[in-house]
Amino acid sequence: MRAKIFADRAFPIGEIDPRLYGSFIEHLGRAVYGGIYEPGHPTADEEGFRKDVLDLVKKLGVPIVRYPGGNFVSGYRWEDGTGDKSKRPRRAELAWNSIETNQVGIDEFQSWAKKADSQVMMAVNLGTGTPREAGDLVEYCNFPGGTELSDRRRKNGFEKPFGIRTWCLGNEMDGPWQIGHKTAEEYGRAACEAAKIMKLADPSIEVIACGSSHSGMPTFGTWEMEVLDRCYEQVDYLSLHSYYGNRSNDTAEYLGCCRDMDEFIRSVEAICDAVKAVKRSDKTMYLSFDEWNVWFHSNDADKQIAPWQVAPPLLEDIYTFEDALVVGCLLITLLKHADRVKIACLAQLVNVIAPIMTETGGRAWAQTIFWPFLQASAHARGRAMLTRVDCPSYQAGKYGEMPAVEAIAVENGGELTVLAVNRSLEEDAELEPDLRGWGNMTLLEHSQLYCEDLKAVNTAADPERVKPEAGDGKTLRRHSWNLLRYRFDQ
Ligand code: AHR
Q1: Cα 112 from Cα 108, distance rounded (Å)
Q2: Atom of ligand 1 nearest to the CA of 177
Q3: Count of Cβ atoms closer than 10 Å to residue 305 Cβ
Q4: Which of 126, 151, 309, 390 is in the most buried spot, having the most CB atoms within 10 Å?
């Protein structure tokens, strides 16, 4: 088949916020303990952070990391994770039935993020926590000094304020599973007051209100409307979360799941704009897709894990090659909405539904999904361009008829990057780029992620089974992810 990819320099979608390539570390499973932090590990630095993991995180290129949860944050007392480590409490962590030792907290995570060349995106507890406690945390982190809380930070070894700019007002507050679950009315009021107090403590911060946990929630739509009705002027972003999985082992359908993400984003945009109109507001609400990924492989295994362990191996999805194709399609979808989606977090980063895996005490390696994320983060920065693909379509089960090829072009300095997934399980696509307005194009690189076996995985023993290789610049192989980089002369 042929795949003609059209983009025209006159038709940009918008600037890509670097935070679109964010990720997420929650106090869950082995994300923190045995993941980013493991004193005694052969690669551990003086603070106990694993350098092998830091190297992989830096390679991935993650400009912002959401922390400390997730469901965890809704029962978290942030003071537990500050000050003398020997005095920190061990607690029953109720969101994931684990034991939390608090050996890593806000201070250590800030230090880790610096080492990872990343910013912290901090979530406050609006489940069991109060707006005042949320304001206290902003003061502890960002106030220069001369108050009890900011001086406490200085005493803990951090003279300079952390300068955390992006803050989440709780997590998935619409979900009955959430500790301190609230109705839309209750949450909308709490978010409004928390945002006010937090911005009084530091007017330079931006805050994200919780949207629905996913688009299948019975309250989806009304939740967004009612929450925004109460806090539209106080908040800067609304969150979206979504996870996908090949539960019925139907690859053709699974590869189409980015249509669900696309429709979810369009619906939330429409709701935000409806509230804006009703309020006669000048302000546009931006979106933070702060949890997205594939999550299903570990669901059954997790039911067998005994409660009340420190760092149990929860949510350890081992990703297949086809999962990497789905992650590629989801990245392309986020980029297609770069005008509105300013923040997105691949959930999560290490061990827990993550691109990076570790053995506690042993090796660290890149899962299959690491590669499309790395290539997009490295090369799809700048201006997302409206991109059309002329190619045959296929039946993607419940998602309906979809084009075989999904693609986006991004202008990045003097280069044009094309990201493309050929979803056809049978046919290679002959690539015909029709890229207008950039003058002469010279192909700099064609890298592709391809494997005969859709279920191939990377493991500690075989970490490079699925990894990018050079393409011929002309062919999008059947079921493949592709990065094409062109230099232009105009
Ligand atoms: O990322 C894992 C969990 O998924 C998070 O804790 C929660 O916010 C979501 O339901």
Answers
A1: 6
A2: 10
A3: 17
A4: 126
- Burial bucket for residue 121 (CB in 10 Å: 0-12, 13-18, 19+): buried
* Strand stretches in 184-340, DSSP E: 206-209, 237-244, 286-294
Using CA atoms, how far apart are residues 132 and 193, in angstroms rounded to an integer? 9
Q: Please, which residues bridge with residue 4 across strands?
A: 390, 432
Contact partners, residue 404, CB within 8 Å, separation at least 6? 1, 3, 391, 392, 393, 394, 422, 423, 424, 427, 429
User: Please, are residues 381 and 57 in contact by the beta-carbon 8 Å criterion?
Assistant: no
Task: Give the residue from 332, 224, 344, 243 showing the smallest Cα distance to 290.
Answer: 344
Report the percentage of the chain scoring pLDDT > 90: 100
**Closest Cα partner for 61 from 342, 332, 331, 378?**
378
Residue whose token pair is 């003058």: 439
Q: Are 411 and 385 a contacting pair, CB within 8 Å? A: yes
To test the pocket of ligand 1, the residue of 23, 25, 26 to mutate (highest count of ligand atoms within 8 Å of its CB) is: 26
Query: Hey, what are 376's tokens?
Result: 């997009």
User: For all residues of the chain together, what is the average pLDDT?
Assistant: 98
Q: What is the pLDDT of residue 490?
A: 86
- Mind listing the pLDDT tens digit for each residue in 89-133? 999 999 999 999 999 999 999 999 999 999 999 999 999 999 999
Q: Find the 386 Cα to ligand 1 centroid distance in Å.
A: 32
Taking CB atoms within 8 Å and a gap of at least 24, the contacts of 107-111 are 107/81, 107/82, 107/153, 107/156, 107/157, 107/158, 108/37, 108/47, 108/81, 109/25, 109/67, 109/68, 110/141, 110/158, 110/162, 110/164, 111/47
Question: Could you report the per-residue pLDDT of 437-478, keeping only the tens digit for each?
Answer: 999 999 999 999 999 999 999 999 999 999 999 999 999 999
Q: What angle do CA 134, 144, 75 make, to 5 degrees?
A: 20
Convert 283-300 to b/e letters by CB count within 10 Å (16 or more is b).
eebbbbbbbbbbbebbee
Q: Is 172 in the pocket of ligand 1 (CB under 6 A)?
A: yes
Phi (first) and psi of residue 265, to 5 degrees: -60, -45
Helices and strands counted in the chain (H then E): 11, 23
Kindly state the DSSP code that residue 479 receives in the 8-state scheme. S
Q: Is 253 in the pocket of ligand 1 (CB under 6 A)?
A: no
Phi, psi of 436 (to 5 degrees): -105, 135
The position carrying tokens 């509230």 is 275
4 CA to centre of ligand 1 in angstroms:
39
Q: Alpha-carbon distance 149 to 83, whole Å?
A: 12
Long-range contacts of 85-88 (CB under 8 A, 24+ apart): none
Q: How far apart are CA 421 and CA 144, in angstroms?
A: 48
Cα angle 165-171-173, degrees, rounded to a multiple of 5: 135
